[in-house]
SGNH/GDSL hydrolase family protein
Amino acid sequence: MTAGYPGRDRAGHRQVARTGHHGAMTAPPARARRVALPAAAGPLEGTVPGTTPALRLAVVGESTAAGHGAPTHETSMAGHLARELGRSTGRAVSWRVHGRGGATARVVARDLVPALDDPAWAPTHVALLIGVNDVQRTWRRGTFERDVLALLSAVVHRCPDARVVVSGLPDLRAIPALPRPIMPVLVAKARWMGATTRAAAVATGATYVPVDALSLPAGLISADGLHPSPAGYARWAAVLAPALIG
């Protein structure tokens, strides 16, 4: 996820754009400036114990896949989803993360999906987290339609035996770092992007999970005002898990 375009003040110093200035994506005022949080630390793979053979879960996508807002991947989407999958099936779950902050659907397809080709670790389950960057950057419907269809087609082609789930977007109005002046535009875009993603999922055999009713109040948003906290990831994972389990 990203929010805000950097600018410069009259002295030439770099700063975060203010809300409502020429329609720019914005961040809170200086007294409440957004804290930039890195991706989750630690290994990009792990295992939840259980019976064998282990299930293999790949979490792929933008900064929420990379775990921004969580200290480790154990407390990010990957760890929470793996534990949900393990609890429901009794199976061990081997998980891997392929995430990148700021990635759009096109970037995920081009740069991250090829990593799913590992013949020694063919995913049985894939969770795709995309959309917030596309909402802010992709303004042509046709462009997003092509990008999301290409992404889902690429994942299903590489992982023909996997259960592929793509998440919708949570309630954008509950994300403080997103710009208030153009929030109605972002919400409207999120709706048609959700419908487009659902259609692409139907066309490719993936499963779309709407989470627009998922609100992330203050305790479930991290210090940057943009990404979920560990508790927020847990709530989101609980919504995705039933579709992932099937």
